[in-house]
Amino acid sequence: MRVLYFARFRQVIGRASDEIALPAGVTTAGALLDHLMARDERCAEAFSNRKIVRVAVDQNHAALDQSIVGAKEVAFFPPVTGG
């Protein structure tokens, strides 16, 4: 699975993406976030305030409880505004 990081998250983590094999039991975007935070200190720092984490699964906005089973891409980004 490809995991993408945008904006502030990319800056703190120090990379734009990861290619990972999902461990057993990681079936939602929130569980993926937990997994990333547990394995990587920079991810733990970037995602320490879950209230500002937004997610897209296969380029569709989703909630952290969204299933990622079968997904090819999950992206994490902070809230954005347009204008």
Structure overview:
The protein is α+β, with helices and mostly antiparallel strands. The chain has helices at residues 8-13, 29-39, 41-46, and strands at 2-5, 17-19, 54-57, 60-62, 73-77. It has a five-stranded mixed β-sheet. The protein is globular, with a radius of gyration of 12 Å. The mean pLDDT is 95.
C-alpha Rg (nearest Å): 12 Å
* Average pLDDT rating: 95
Low-pLDDT runs: none
Quick one: biggest sheet?
5 strands, mixed
Order of helices and strands: EHEHHEEE
Number of strands: 5
Structural shape:
globular
User: In what range is the share of β-strand residues?
Assistant: 15-25%
Number of helical segments? 3
Intertermini distance? 32 Å
Order of strands, widest sheet: 2-1-5-3-4
Structure classification: alpha+beta
Helix content range: 25-40%
Outline the fold blueprint.
Blueprint: E1 2-5, H1 8-13, E2 17-19, H2 29-39, H3 41-46, E3 54-57, E4 60-62, E5 73-77
Parallel strand pairs: 1-5
Antiparallel strand pairs: 1-2, 3-4, 3-5
Name the descriptors.
83 residues, alpha+beta, five-stranded mixed sheet, 3 helices
In short:
The chain is 28% helix and 23% strand. With 83 residues, it is α+β, with helices and mostly antiparallel strands.
